[in-house]
Structures are given as C-alpha cells and as structure tokens.
C-alpha cells in the first residue's frame, strides 16, 4: 500500500501562447476540478505573448495578503533579471554580480533561501567545470566548437549529497534540472519538476524559466521559441479552494484564456540543430 496521497491520473496537457494563459489553465483545472492536484502536468508555451496584467496583479495582491513572495521574486530565484539588466548584456558581469549578491539573498530570508536558490545551483554548484558554473561551461563549449551533443546542454539543480534528506518536507529544490535544445527555429527550454506549488510558485516558476531561456538564447544568438515544463505532481496546497481571496484571481484567469489568441508561426515545425555523435 502506498504511503502517498497522490492519485495516478492521465497527464494534464497545456499548450499555450503566454505564461499568463498557461498558468491560468493550470489554476482553473485544479481550482474548479476535483481534488487539489494534477499528476503529471505537461505544460508548453510558445509565441510568448505579453503577460496578462489583470491576472498578474490579482495574483500578486493575493500573495501579498497571505505573506507570500510576489511573482517577480519567485522568478528571480531562477533567473535574476534585474542583475542581467545591470550587466547590460555581459554574462561575465552577471555571474560576478550574482556571486557578490548571493550571501545577502540568504541573509534576507534564511528560512526560504538557506538551502540555496536555483540560479545559484546553476552557476555556483560547488563542484564541476568552470568552478561549478554550469551555464558558463555549456556556453563556452557551444561557442568554441562546431557542434555539441544535445546531452551537453543541461544543468542540474538537485544534488543528492545535499538534498536527499529524511526531512518530512523540503521546500527546495522542486526544480530538478533544465535542458536547452538549439533548433533551426530557435531555442527550446525543457524544465523538470518533481513537485510544484501552484498557488505561490508556479507563475513565478514559468516566468523565471522564460527569462532564463531568453538569456540563454541571447548568448547562443538564437531566439527562445518554446518552453516545456513537466511536473510530477502539481499541487494547490497553500490556500483553500474556497478562500474568497481566490475569487478575483479565478475571474482574471477565466478572462485571460477567453481572450483571442494571436496566431503565429514562431516555434512551429521545430527541427533539431546538427549535433556531434
């Protein structure tokens, strides 16, 4: 007999044109359906239309009222967009800025950040080539070689040495690893989560992954064309489905997906780039 409360389900598949619309579909599936989770969740975003301001603002308002981090702050754990803007397109400066700032991030919130942050694991893993900077290693190899194998283009955030613990609950890391696939159409980013908290993490997760993909696309000199996220168990645990604070968020989510999509061709007919055997 299983000791888990999760139920074996058919995959819930989302294919959308913006981070907002993708999040809206996941939230509505759980909030208006039976139970409090979907397992697994397979989510894909292309086109990357503008975010829906009403959904983003309504969610941030609710997050603030519950003492949770804003969407932007969650996204920052995956990619520090503000530091990238300060670096003005220089990735060496970005990595340097982050290394200087990371100790302060931990001090600011020991409870949430004490075990690390996702971008920290990507660029300060603690061991490996380039002094543990997995992103720099990939980019340097890509730049100096005529082709690279697909399996080289990946970073891990989970570390068995640090993360396999007997703790009943472990808030970090839920994101396990990320892969990058250069194609003829542009860059595809694939992210894999063991679990994901839908209320207070998912929107920021998707936004941060999009920003990470845009950064990598900039360095690889190709556009980001698709974001794929696979989640083992997506949960709505940190708020009740009957909480009145969810009402405006659900209304904004319904409005977001009712808007006509802007049809385009970005991300269609993707083809793998040549790779070494």
Automatic annotation (TrEMBL):
Name recorded for this polypeptide: Thymidylate synthase
Lineage start: Bacteria, Pseudomonadati, Pseudomonadota, Alphaproteobacteria, Hyphomicrobiales
């Amino acid at each position: 007999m299983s000791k888990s409360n999760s139920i074996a389900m058919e995959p819930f598949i989302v294919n959308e044109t913006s981070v907002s619309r993708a999040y809206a579909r996941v939230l509505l599936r759980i909030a208006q359906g039976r139970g409090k989770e979907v397992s697994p969740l397979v989510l894909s975003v292309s086109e990357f239309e503008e975010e829906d301001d009403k959904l983003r603002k309504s969610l941030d308002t609710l997050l603030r009222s519950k003492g949770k981090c804003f969407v932007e702050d969650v996204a920052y754990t995956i990619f520090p967009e503000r530091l990238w803007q300060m670096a003005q397109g220089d990735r060496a400066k970005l990595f340097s800025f982050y290394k200087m700032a990371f100790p302060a991030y931990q001090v600011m919130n020991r409870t949430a950040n004490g075990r690390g942050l996702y971008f920290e694991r990507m660029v300060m893993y603690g061991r490996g080539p380039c002094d543990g900077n997995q992103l720099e290693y990939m980019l340097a190899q890509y730049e100096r070689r005529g082709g690279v194998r697909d399996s080289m283009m990946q970073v891990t955030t989970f570390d068995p040495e640090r993360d396999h613990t007997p703790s009943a609950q472990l808030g970090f890391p839920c994101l396990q690893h990320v892969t990058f696939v250069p194609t003829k159409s542009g860059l595809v980013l694939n992210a894999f989560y063991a679990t994901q908290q839908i209320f207070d993490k998912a929107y920021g997760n998707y936004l941060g992954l999009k920003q990470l993909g845009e950064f990598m696309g900039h360095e690889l000199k190709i556009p980001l064309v698709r974001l794929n996220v696979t989640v083992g168990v997506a949960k709505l645990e940190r708020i009740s489905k009957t909480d009145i604070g969810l009402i405006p968020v659900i209304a904004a989510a319904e409005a977001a997906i009712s808007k006509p999509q802007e049809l385009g061709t970005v991300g269609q007919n993707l083809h793998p780039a040549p790779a070494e055997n």
